[in-house]
Amino acid sequence: MTIYVTRHGQTAWNEQNMVCGATDIALSSAGKRQAEELALKIKDKPIDLVFSSPLVRAAETAEILCRSLQLKAVPDCRLAEQNYGIFEGAKRDDPGFLKARGQFAHRFPKGESTLQLAQRVYSFLDELGREYSGKNILLVCHNYTARVIRSYFVDMDNEEFFSYRLEHCAFEEYTV
């Protein structure tokens, strides 16, 4: 089985260096262009299934990619971005956000912890392994979700984990 992972295209909040998290923000025009460019790059990949975060920025990206692949995306809430609670809409360099972000088991106030994110993403990946063995699957998700997916397949220490970043519409591949 091969798992392909991409992050949604840019949003206005990404362009303004704001925390999106679980807030439903649409793609910007730049984000739509990024998704169209990625669609051209992957149109000949042997992808059998596409799963997407239900958040609109990922769903829009998946829709653009699926037109090229002639597939339909299946939304799954376990691929949604981490809920950053009170920091949704804050600047990414907010000291409170930066401090809380580095705590794996600490829940963001009115949000979720990275541990909770990892639990739901790992359960999704375990299910893929059981139910879709031998298939090639594209996951359209978010930066922190992609970070957790990477940690499922690649051993990472804390520094590697917290510094890892998947750029908008970048594309990674994991063979299981």
UniProtKB/TrEMBL annotation:
Q: Does the keyword Manganese apply?
A: no
Q: Which domain of life is it from?
A: Bacteria
Entry EC no(s): 5.4.2.11
CDD domains in the cross-refs:
HP_PGM_like
Q: Does the keyword Isomerase apply?
A: yes
Can you tell me which residues bind substrate? Answer: R7, H8, G9, Q10, T11, A12, W13, N14, R57, E81, Q82, N83, Y84
Please provide the record's keywords in A-Z order.
Answer: Glycolysis, Isomerase
Q: Which residues form the active site?
A: H8, E81
Single biological process term from Gene Ontology: glycolytic process
User: Pfam families, per this entry?
Assistant: His_Phos_1
- Signal sequence residues: none
Annotated GO MF terms: phosphoglycerate mutase activity
Q: Which family does it belong to?
A: Belongs to the phosphoglycerate mutase family. BPG-dependent PGAM subfamily.
- PANTHER family found in the cross-reference section: PHOSPHOGLYCERATE MUTASE (PTHR11931)
Which protein are we looking at?
phosphoglycerate mutase (2,3-diphosphoglycerate-dependent)
What are the leading ranks of the lineage? Bacteria, Bacillati, Bacillota, Clostridia, Eubacteriales
